[in-house]
Amino acid sequence: MLLGLALSQPAVGAAPTGPTWAQLNSTQRQVLAPLAPEWDKLDAERRRKWLGVVETYPTLSPAQQQRLQSRMKEWANLSPAERETAREKFKNLQQLPPEKRANVKEKWQAYQELPEEERETLRVEGPRRGAPLVVPVASGSLGTPAGTAEQSPDSSSATAKP
Question: Could you tell me the residue range of the domain that residue 105 belongs to?
Answer without folding.
Answer: 98-150
